[in-house]
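Re: that backbone. Tokens:
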């Protein structure tokens, strides 16, 4: 399977996280790209350099045929592009000594009620208008890396559009937590949503996004929640057990309006291992067939693995291989987009296990 990557995805150095008010090292590090890339090369996957694309990040080109709106609000992209330079110009690197953009003020609906929202003049206040947590810091290389991740995803779609059955995109930073207007969860641009939209823009009547990350992809779900042409299905640790994104990702979220019935969540209890997880994947695969999707985007987070520090799920490499085989057996044009996965010693092997399964499923 061709594997698309870009060296620019290494440019994002988040400098840690701020979690419950405490600075921590963080796990979404550039080395993730290197260990996955090296494992792919060793396993014989062809490495393909990403091609630059014009998308909503730069111009209003990625518009949906249903809503005529971009996947991302252009104001979000302008903010991500400019905010770090504005932060440095405002002197925050010297006082109080923070050289990364960290929001502290969040204009929620609870604060505002019926009041209209105006653009904050202060950059430290504006950060919280576009970011919904304190974990997702912005540095000087964040936007270039996020744009490169988008290029990886869209290049993979192009490979599939031109005849490759399946392609993998080594996206970093990940993206499935980004909504149309806000970023968070260590994500900045929604690579999977942009990939699905590119399939739609080039003639696919129905596209399915299947999210295997340990955490619910609230951003992807929100972007397509009211659309009937994109199915979103996710298997993840139950947010009711206290896990991110906490307030969404429940089984009763099934879409609305034209998208009624096109969302399916499979929340699992902490400690779930291969048997329970693969049963949930089977239900999602069955939903794809019922939906009659013409293409599939897989949000491949491997943080559901037993050794991963970011979730309490216990999926093995065999579990990922089985999931890949099930999705490959659909025989649909497929793009696999990297999401989470943070245990560096096992990360590359887990990704290869899924891709091997997907490729073998496509051969049957």
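Recovered sequence:
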């Amino acid at each position: 399977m061709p594997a698309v990557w870009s060296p620019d995805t290494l440019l994002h150095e988040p400098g840690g996280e701020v979690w419950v008010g405490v600075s921590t090292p963080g796990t979404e590090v550039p080395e993730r790209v290197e260990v996955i890339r090296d494992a792919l090369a060793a396993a014989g996957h062809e490495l393909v350099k990403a091609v630059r694309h014009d998308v909503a990040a730069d111009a209003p080109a990625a518009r949906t045929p249903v809503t005529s709106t971009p996947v991302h609000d252009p104001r979000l992209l302008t903010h991500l592009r400019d905010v770090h330079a504005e932060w440095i110009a405002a002197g925050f690197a010297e006082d109080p000594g923070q050289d990364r953009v960290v929001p502290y003020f969040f204009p929620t609906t609870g604060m505002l009620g019926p009041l209209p929202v105006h653009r904050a003049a202060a950059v430290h206040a504006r950060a919280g208008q576009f970011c919904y947590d304190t974990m997702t810091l912005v540095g000087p290389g964040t936007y270039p890396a996020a744009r490169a991740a988008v290029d990886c995803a869209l290049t993979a779609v192009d490979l599939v559009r031109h005849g490759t059955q399946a392609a993998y995109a080594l996206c970093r930073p990940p993206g499935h937590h980004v909504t149309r207007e806000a970023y968070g969860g260590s994500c900045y641009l929604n690579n999977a949503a942009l990939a699905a939209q590119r399939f739609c823009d080039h003639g696919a009547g129905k596209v399915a996004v299947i999210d295997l990350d340990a955490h619910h992809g609230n951003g992807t779900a929100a972007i397509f929640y009211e659309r009937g042409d994109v199915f979103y299905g996710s298997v993840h640790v139950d947010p009711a057990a206290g896990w991110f994104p906490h307030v969404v990702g429940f089984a009763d979220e099934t879409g609305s309006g034209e998208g009624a019935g096109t969302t399916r969540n499979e929340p699992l209890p902490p400690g779930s291992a291969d048997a329970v997880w693969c049963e949930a994947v089977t239900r999602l695969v069955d939903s794809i067939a019922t939906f009659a999707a013409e293409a599939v985007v897989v949000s491949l987070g491997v943080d559901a693995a037993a050794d991963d520090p970011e979730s309490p799920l216990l999926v093995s490499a065999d579990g990922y291989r089985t999931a890949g085989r099930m999705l490959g057996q659909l025989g649909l044009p497929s793009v696999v987009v990297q999401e989470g996965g943070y245990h560096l010693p096992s990360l590359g092997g887990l990704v290869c296990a899924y891709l091997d399964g997907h490729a073998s499923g496509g051969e049957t």
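Residues 57-68 have pLDDT under 50 and may be disordered. Residues 235 and 249 are 9 Å apart (CA to CA).
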